[in-house]
Write a structure and sequence with these properties.
The protein is of the alpha/beta class. It contains 5 helices and 5 strands. The longest helix has 14 residues. It is globular.
Length: about 140
């Protein structure tokens, strides 16, 4: 079973930095899905995950995006039974206390600064190697 990452990031440079760090950690390009903002990420999730899906997916989420921002995206997925168990990490430029508190209250697994993208991706590789992820759909 392949574990994949959905990176929700609107900035092209930040996306490229993440990809470069992911390749350095042994991820292949097929393991990283990309959405530019929350609405596009929701559409991608709806296309990717069905009731029969055995998809193993972790979301890496920026908070400050046009359209549906990260907090709005988190609120939406936590209220949707198909996606409420998604493992989500925040990778953002925000260090505002309100953003950190809101993200953790919405069940994120971690919150990190984009300044630490290489270390973050290294941690993510280790996490995906040793973790058993919850089923996303079809199994209660």
């Amino acid at each position: 079973m392949t574990k994949r990452i959905l990176l929700v990031e609107d900035d092209d440079l930040d996306f490229e930095c993440f990809l470069r760090a992911a390749r350095a950690q042994g991820f292949d390009s097929g393991q990283v899905l990309h959405a530019l903002e929350g609405t596009q990420a929701l559409d991608l999730l709806r296309e990717t995950i069905s009731d029969e899906s055995s998809e193993q997916l972790v979301v890496v989420l920026d908070l400050n995006m046009p359209g549906m921002n990260g907090i709005e995206f988190l609120t939406e997925i936590r209220n949707d039974p198909r996606f409420s168990r998604l493992v989500v990490f925040v990778l953002t430029s925000s260090d505002h206390g309100r953003d950190i508190t809101n993200a953790y209250e919405l069940g994120v697994s971690g919150f990190s600064s984009k300044e630490n993208v290489s270390e973050f991706v290294k941690m993510l590789r280790q996490f995906l190697t040793v973790s058993i992820l919850p089923p996303l759909a079809g199994v209660a």
